[in-house]
Structure formats: C-alpha cells, structure tokens
Amino acid sequence: MSLAESPVHSSSSDDFTGFLERALGSGSSHSSPDEEADYESDDGSERSTKRRKVENLGSIDKTHGSTSQVFVEENSEASPKTDICTHPGSVKDLCIVCGQRVDEKSGVPLGYIHKDFWLNNDEIDRVRSTDIKKSLHLKKLYLVLDLDHTLLNSTHLNHMTAEEEYLHSQTDSLQDVSNGSLFRVDVMHMMTKLRPFVRKFLKEASEMFEMYIYTMGERAYALEMAKLLDPRKEYFGDRVISRDDGTQKHQKGLDVVLGQESAALILDDTENAWTKHKDNLILMERYHFFRSSCHQFGFHCKSLSELKSDESEPEGALATVLEVLKRTHNMFFYESKDNLIDRDVRC
C-alpha cells in the first residue's frame, strides 16, 4: 500500500511512510514504481517516490529505547526541535516518527502490521484518504475475505471420522502448495481443504481489489492458512487480520482495514460478525467439506469428504460470487454518473 507524505515534518514523515509501505509488504501493491511516479497529487505536482532507508523494526524489539535513533540519527534533515510532532503512530508506546514516549493511546491498533503498532485517528484518516485516491486511479476497490467456510474448511486431526481416514493418503505437499488443495498442517494439528475454484478466484479478484484476510481464528492459524492460499504473498502481502487484531470481542470491523468503507466489500459466511458493516457484506454459502464442520452447524448428514465428493468449480459459490464482484466493480467504475471519489459501493 503506497502512502503519501505525512502532515508532520516532511523529512521524518518520509521515514514513517516508508515504514508503513515496508510493513505491509504487499506483493499486490497498487502500482509499479513507474506507475507511482506518474500518479499526481491533488495540486497536480508529481509525488516523489523517494523513500529514506529505515532500519527494520526488529531493532525496537531488541532495545526498547532505541526507536528515536532509528528515525532521528539516520535522518540528516531532521526538523528543528521547536517543531511539535503530532505522533501519527506508535510502537511499544514510542512515536514512530520522533521516538518520544506516547503515554495516551488514541486511534486504532494495527497489530497485524507490527506488534504493538497504533495509528492515531487523524493519521489513519489521512492514510485512507490518500490510498482511496490511488486505488480509484488504478480502478481498484477493497475486498475483505473470511477464511473458514468461505475460502477453505479445516478440521482437527482427532475430529476426523473413520470414513475420512482415506484423506491422509491424498494430501498435497506443503513444499509446493500452489497446485494443491488438501493439506495436512501438522503444526496446527489440522487437515485443511481449500474450496474449489479458490486459486482462480484470488487471481482474478486481485486484479480488481486490494485484498485482506480477516478471520476470527487465532493469528498463528491465519498465517498458516495464508501460506496455503498465497504462498508468494501475491494477493494479501501482510494484510492478514485475526481475532487478536480486532477492536471488539467476537466482532469484525473495517476500522482495522486501511481502506475507505465506501469502497470496501466483505465476503463472509457469518452475518453476525459484521454488525456495523452489513451494507458492505456479501453473505457466502458455507463450505462444509469435513464431517466436523457439518456437525458444528447442526447438519447430521454425510460430509462432502465422506461422500468423496466436492463443490463444482464452475458452478460453486466462489465462481458465482466472482461474477457478482465483477459486476459490482464494473458498475462502480463505469456505470455511475457521480464523481469517482463520491461513489459508494454500498449503494
């Protein structure tokens, strides 16, 4: 995700902007360096793509008090001491720009970008305002994707029935997951089945959307599933959000997504998880491959795995919803008569 200059001092804010770009580290970034150089800011001038080198945030973990050195000592053009930093973001209570301690946290925690990372409300509004202009310029919206029962189905190994034991001999290699669909993930003690059509879905959706994973599962699980779906980080980069990253217990919210709500769509099988964003939600038909998944939702019948069957790729849920996404994208960019920046995907 490419971000413009911060409203705080330009020299140190370049470091902050560079940090965000590297932290998100998306393989599906909005544009190539050449495209970014051609993108113009509101005043018509070319936005510089020059970013100063900033040390990896691992240095913060090693020495709690070294943050200011990362941004001040390395920045030879530091602003006068009389200027006041607005503390746009912090890591471990230290401002990511000036290194001073930030005692009062306000804004949004973005732990999926970096542990203990926060953006204040003004800065996250600025980031979203900048990014939506870049997204619309490149004809992209935002897409937030649930994992379980939407893109895949997982079961604990000890929950597999005798009729599912044959699956152990049919798993695909974790060394090269790009062509596989059934995986035994021993580190999680789970068997995972990717939903039919999911790879083509992700490829085509990535051309229209900046995509996020958002699951109510634990972060370790979310990252393992992301490796199966996107081993080269082409689609999600580090935009993998788990229940540990949300701001409300048992709820998901777009407040932790660095995208405008007016340009964001959500695919999820659980409506109640998005009580504040139902207008953004496209409700998915649940994918029940394993017996334990059927029982979880009160279905006392043989599962797809026990029937040695699966969803149809060309006629399944993901193929169907991809067509909905294509139509929505087309209507937003090519059929509306409103100014592009005023359009709302929820309308």
From TrEMBL:
Gene3D superfamilies: HAD superfamily/HAD-like. Residues 1-84 are annotated as: Disordered. It catalyses: O-phospho-L-threonyl-[protein] + H2O = L-threonyl-[protein] + phosphate; O-phospho-L-seryl-[protein] + H2O = L-seryl-[protein] + phosphate. SUPFAM superfamilies: HAD-like (SSF56784). It is found in: Nucleus. Residues 34-43 have a biased composition (Acidic residues). The keyword Phosphoprotein does not apply. Keywords: Hydrolase, Nucleus. InterPro entries: Fcp1 (IPR039189), FCP1_dom (IPR004274), FCP1_euk (IPR011947), HAD-like_sf (IPR036412), HAD_sf (IPR023214). Its EC number is 3.1.3.16. Residues 136-307 form the FCP1 homology domain. Transmembrane segments: none annotated. This promotes the activity of RNA polymerase II. This is RNA polymerase II C-terminal domain phosphatase-like. It comes from Prunus mume (Japanese apricot). The gene is LOC103341256.
